[in-house]
Amino acid sequence: MHIAEMLDRGRPTVSFEFMAPRDENEVQVLEKTVAALAGHAPDWVSVTYRLRTGQETLELVTRIKRQYHIEAMAHLTCANTRDATRRILNWMEREGIANVLALRGDPPGPGQPFQPADAGLTHGSDLVAFVRGNGYRLGIGAACSAEKHPESPDLEHEFHYMRLKVEAGADFLITQLFFDNRFYFALVARARTAGIKVPIVPGLMPLPSRRSLAFVTEMSGASVPEPLQRAIDAQPDDEGIRKLGVEHCIRQCVELLEAGVPGLHFYTFNRARAPIEILGALRGQQLLAS
Ligand code: FAD
């Protein structure tokens, strides 16, 4: 089923993002996480894409669909040539994948340039246009940023390219993570004023470890509000940060649900505990269907 249809049902969807495993250890952690979270009734899930682990992404997505009967979306980036991209998209359609998240892809590291594999596929909007223009029946999602992307001079640029993705055929958007809902509300208000009607799903990340947090904020451009940063600094260990992150994310989700968001998309870092605690709290408050 197309994810855009689910987002249009008038009841917020719950989705989890998994990272494709890089080695055997990660495979085992991920297996447990998927099994644990599948029991918490997500409407759909997605699996990240990296050139090195691209095959794992595709295999995992099909396996989740078959084993758990959950709609699973594959991410795809501009890391491949157009021919290779066509082969991957053909494979997805053949295997019954219904949705793709069309992205440019992360650069190799903070401050480093992204190297596209094909001059015709250099940005998220190019990949959206490629999928749409080649007649694939896949539902197409794309990324957007509630805060300034690290490579953008300003939010104006971000907004311009977000609109380009929708004009190219994206039927829903997922935001980069943010810790302050005001950025999300401002983005949605601006999009609606500009006539952009597609669902914009907030992407939420329960705080990871101190080290991972520094990395993801640098890569994503997400800012940490002052009071939250002070509370993080006061924690003695990563478990304290984890608990704080769960509480903060619950507060974010309550406000977002009350504002009528189309869904909540959780960046899980392949860990089940925080999302389970967050969903438990939201369902306990009857903010989400059980
Ligand atoms: P783009 O839209 O191409 O934007 C990248 C930069 O270029 C921005 O600064 C933008 O303003 C600018 N830009 C956009 N279009 C143009 C244009 N036509 N001309 C000039 N400048 C332009 N990364 C992965 O590698 N694998 C994943 O699986 C993955 N999953 C993600 C899932 C979600 C929900 C999100 C939000 C991000 C994900 N990322 C993933 C990270 C993403 O690839 C990076 O955030 C990347 O920097 C931006 O991707 P994009 O598709 O928005 O790129």
Report on the structure:
Strands 7-6-5-4-3-2-1-9-8 form a nine-stranded parallel beta sheet. Helix 7 (about 180-195) links the parallel strand 6 (about 170-175) and strand 7 (about 200). The mean pLDDT is about 95. It has eleven helices and nine strands. The chain is globular, with a radius of gyration of 18 Å. By secondary structure, the protein is α/β, with parallel strands linked by helices. It has helices at about 5, 25-40, 55-70, 80-95, 125-135, 155-170, 180-195, 210-220, 225-235, 240-260, 275-285; strands at about 15-20, 45, 70-75, 100, 140-145, 170-175, 200, 205, 265. Helices cover about 45% and strands about 15% of the residues. It has one domain: TIM Barrel, CATH 3.20.20.220. Flavin-adenine dinucleotide (FAD) binds near residues 105, 123, 149 and 152.
Walk me through the topology.
Blueprint: H1 3-7, E1 13-18, H2 24-38, E2 44-47, H3 54-68, E3 71-76, H4 82-94, E4 99-102, H5 124-133, E5 139-144, H6 155-168, E6 172-175, H7 181-193, E7 200-201, E8 203-204, H8 210-220, H9 226-233, H10 238-258, E9 263-267, H11 273-284
Parallel strand pairs: 1-2, 1-9, 2-3, 3-4, 4-5, 5-6, 6-7, 8-9
Helix pairs in contact: 5-6, 10-11
The structure holds flavin-adenine dinucleotide.
Flavin-adenine dinucleotide (FAD) binds next to helix 5 and helix 6.
Oligomeric form: single chain
Task: Sketch the topology as an H/E string, one letter per element.
Answer: HEHEHEHEHEHEHEEHHHEH
Number of domains: 1
Give the fraction of residues assigned to helices: 40-55%
Could you tell me the radius of gyration in angstroms? 18 Å
- Principal-axes geometry comes out as globular
Q: How many DSSP H or I helices?
A: 11
In CATH, what is the class? Alpha Beta
